């Protein structure tokens, strides 16, 4: 095939231009002088200059290449609603067969599924990949069968050919979806958090007015409310407990709507305390007297009230007790009227001195039984006749003093039970901990709590117990401060006392008997913490009501775990013995179901960039036409593809237009003719 004329000049184009200018000047002189052969001279010069450019005819041997049409087959979750999946498959099968029957045409069918981790439909990503694998010069068209709900429009490529969208939905489709706005990840306990909920109808929805809305917390029996459709509803919710709270909103499936997958919403909020209120009662001054104060003051979330007794009991100066402070300390208000406002009361080497009457201490005992927490850091005072044990608090203290004070050095040790308890589990490096120098001997009974640490001769050092609804702990030494001073290398004093204080205040992550799950995508890590030696299988109840038994493995003392891959999105219930938990996997309404009504609005700008079209398959399968580049590529009932006439060049031959012999013959003949013509005159 002749492709055109090409030039391969013997001299640079500038030099050829200079020679042409000289020849033209000579021709002008010949005309001016009236030479009869000026025309022949000019033709001779033109032949010579043309010969210097070496013109050639290029002859190519070409093999035609087929046009490529890309079919995007949307197989995302929203395409499985109603009859869309079947409509898509039959339409693309028919189009593929029609294109395959066309001469010089190939089809590339690309399936587009759901993106990972709830990314939605990545239609443009799939198109980019398909275009990268094919020569753009052969792409004659792109045909997409989809509901038009894509989630990567920002990745739309520069199209090499017209693109068309065949919508799979119906004109009369409608769907109701539940939206929860501004759900925080954390909320303060005992303070309402406002969630904005909206029920919205999309498509050709009937007039609903109001519909029921069920709200359930942690899988409990739901409460039902009647709410309007199409309006924002503000719901104040107070979290019932610390840690993870799972709140599920559900509206019943209405007749005729596309799906109920977006009729629920899961909100997971961690309940945290705003301020932890602690009352610290310091007794006899000692070297570590500021240990607890420094620990609590270093935590910005702790409100501390410090009640300190500065005069030792042996000092008898006759000054009345009520005159020992600069201001009247509100003991009655603290220990009777407002004791329930505190999350924790700490007695640090406190002994009875008449400052706190027995009725106050009896109220402290009631406070514990009704859900409060008391921690006793015992020194020699606990072994004396004025010990707190010999007050109304003695009924709940988990250890009985023997009146013996052991003044010898020892290295605190974690007991076997302590290896399992979250207060002391994982406190590594026992062999390198610094020694303490004093311990108060106490006796414990088998049912008097949990001994987590031991001291001299394996005697109980740290004992925790539950009393009624509350908690109490006893540390039988006042030497923890030695660790903070780095004595003999120190020890994990800050971490131990922090965990102890937070266990007393019922922080969920420090519960010794608990079942919970950590969710990552569709995978949950089931965790069972216990003080026992073994646990049973965990019963997992799926969102659809089916159950499954999961066996846990011990990964550390008292901690059993298992990984579970949830087969569907939604609320899962876990149970093992008396322990129960709920966890949500993925969003209750995945991204694929946020908007389910078929629409080409999002893809319209991309399709318009190449004059493509959007047609509904419910109106019938469109005809396929060939259209020229730049012409409208779609119309009523038809879509167009642009033939690319691509080819592969197999061989190229160049045929000189002015071979040397022809150039010499023509130039000589013209020059001779000019000479003869001018010689006659």
Q: Span between N and C termini?
A: 50 Å
Basic shape? elongated
Count of DSSP H/I helices: 11
| Low confidence ranges | none
Spatial order of strands in the largest sheet: 16-15-17-18-24-23-22-20
> Per DSSP, what share of the residues sits in E-state strands of 2 or more residues?
25-35%
Largest sheet: 8 strands, mixed
Mean pLDDT value: 86
Q: Would you give an account of this structure?
A:
19% of the residues lie in helices and 34% in strands. It is an alpha/beta fold and 681 residues long. It has an eight-stranded mixed beta sheet with strand order 16-15-17-18-24-23-22-20. Strands 4-3-5-6-33 form a five-stranded parallel beta sheet, with helices on both faces. Strands 8-14-13-10-11 form a five-stranded mixed beta sheet, with no helix packed on it. A hairpin with a 2-residue loop joins strand 23 and strand 24. Helix 2 packs antiparallel against helix 11. The chain is elongated, with a radius of gyration of 45 Å. The mean pLDDT is 86.
Note the main attributes of this structure.
19% helix; 34% strand
List the helices and strands and how they pair.
Blueprint: E1 2-7, H1 13-33, H2 38-53, E2 55-64, E3 67-74, H3 84-101, E4 105-112, H4 123-132, E5 139-146, E6 163-167, E7 174-181, E8 186-188, E9 193-203, E10 210-217, E11 223-228, E12 232-237, E13 243-250, E14 264-272, E15 276-282, H5 291-297, E16 302-308, H6 331-337, E17 344-348, H7 358-369, E18 373-377, E19 400-406, E20 413-414, E21 439-443, E22 450-454, E23 460-467, E24 470-475, H8 481-484, H9 493-504, E25 514-520, E26 523-529, E27 538-541, E28 547-550, E29 553-556, E30 559-565, E31 570-576, E32 579-585, H10 604-608, E33 614-616, E34 623-626, E35 634-635, E36 638-641, E37 647-656, H11 660-679
Parallel strand pairs: 3-4, 3-5, 5-6, 6-33, 8-14, 15-16, 15-17, 17-18, 18-24, 34-36
Antiparallel strand pairs: 1-2, 2-37, 7-9, 9-12, 10-11, 10-13, 13-14, 19-21, 20-22, 22-23, 23-24, 25-26, 26-30, 27-28, 27-31, 29-30, 31-32, 35-36
Helix pairs in contact: 1-2, 2-11
